[in-house]
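Researcher: I'd like a structural prediction for the single chain below. Treat it as a standalone chain; there are no partners to consider.
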Amino acid sequence: MSRYSLDFRRKVVTAYELGFGSIRQLADQFMISPATVHSYIFRHRETQDITGCN
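Model: Treating it as a single chain, here is the predicted structure.
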């Protein structure tokens, strides 16, 4: 399993926060799993930090 860059993770979270799509839509757009999108969003909401996400 590889880690995505911090910049990439921020883009995913920002897209969700700005309402550019649902978790599933963003997963398709960024070509990652919905579970990965969900983990980024959950981690950001809980800690305001996504540096430790996969």
